[in-house]
Every structure is written in C-alpha cells, then in structure tokens.
Amino acid sequence: MTLRCYKCGKEISPGGTSYIIRIISISNFNGIIEPQENMDLKSLIKEIEEEIKGLPEDLIEEEIFKEKEFILCPRCKELFFANPFGKKLDNMKPPESIPPP
Ligand SMILES: [Zn+2]
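^ inputs. structure came back:
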C-alpha cells in the first residue's frame, strides 16, 4: 500500500519521512451541573436521560472523546503546526528581512 500525505497527496517513498498527526478532542465538561430552579436531582437525571434517549451509544461516546489520525509529509506537517485551524493571517505581515542566526 502506498503511503500518501493526507493534505497534499504526495507519495511518501518507502523509508521516507512522514508524520502522524493525532487529533484528540475530549469533552471539557467541568463536572458542574446547574439545575434549573426548583428541579431536584432525580428530575435532572431524568431530563438528561430523555435528551440522550434513542441516540446510539457510539455517538454519545463520540461527544465525550474523539480521536483521528492523519499522515502528513514534512512540509504539510510544518504548515499544519504553523496554523492548525487555518485562521486568517490578515494582520500578520512577513518580516522585511530575516536577521542572521
Ligand atoms: Zn503533504
């Protein structure tokens, strides 16, 4: 099987350098539930159960923890880390000159 960069599609030669980018999202639930006024714990649990009723278990799990892996070539890895979320760089200008190391 040929290994290809997920982003640019470039073939990664056998023994060539590539990177695995692993993205994990974990629910940032802080453990604090703020029940509505006059709602006891039993009613709150019942409400949560009603909300998730009918949803497949894997979907509920996915809401809490999700993991994905991508293979990138060295160039795409650098580009990814420079701006992982593709934010606009309108206010950033490249430097006029680069100081010597
Ligand atoms: Zn690439």
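The first strand starts at residue 3 and ends at 4. The radius of gyration is 23 Å.
thumbs up if we can close this ticket
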